[in-house]
Amino acid sequence: MAQRFVRIQTTSGQLHYGLLHLDRRVQVLDAPPWLQGQPTDQELLANAYQLLAPCAPSKIVAVGKNYLKHAAEMGGEVPKEPLLFFKPPTAVTIPHGTVYYPPQSERVDYEGELALVIGDRCADCTPEQARTKIWGYTIANDITARDLQKKDGQWTRAKGFDSFCPLGPWIVRELSSGARLQTFLNDNPVPVQSASISEMVFPPDFLVSYISQAITLLPGDVVLTGTPEGVGPLQISDRIRVEIEGIGCLENTVAAKVMEPLKTL
Questions:
Q1: Could you tell me the domains of the chain?
Q2: What three-state secondary structure class fits 259?
């Protein structure tokens, strides 16, 4: 099995990067692995930590309509160039964490995706150079308030709510170009999304190169590579699981977001 790089918080509140063993022990690293973090003598048992999102990106750059069939189901064609948008770092939520359904929306969708983790500063890179800047791979769910996406005419609010970017559970260094991405809803064994990542219109090295022509990517940043066909609505109490061969699975639960009343002076 490929090495699995994690980010954890101990029961005393300390944050660490580490290597996850099969028995769930974590060997602590002395720095993020893309910054040449090395294993230390410290090991933590499974009951001594909580699994976090595997990185803390300064930004999340996402790509829309990067699968032909998904573009068709959304009523359009694949753009001639990658369609980019941002999700804020505050949208990141942890494996097995809660996705909060905002009261502003009446239609919140799942979108399972492959996520790229950048390992080195990337600016004005060719695709060949960009390939060396992709440090590893993890799983994301690009949660989207679909009605607000249509209403607003741009995607910032619809894609940016707190908890709208489940990420994890860990990072692997290598991934087969034919790995299958599947999304499952609740206990249904039939996936609602199923596609090979090779079906992307614009592959990972091209995406990172294209982004770097406009936006400098920094170590630990995340690129979401688009979702295949089969996106659909989530309901309160749903469990949504995204699986990618060679990585693992990312599962989250949906709950209502309770709005606190405005305080008056």
A1: 4-51 (2.30.30), 60-256 (3.90.850.10)
A2: coil
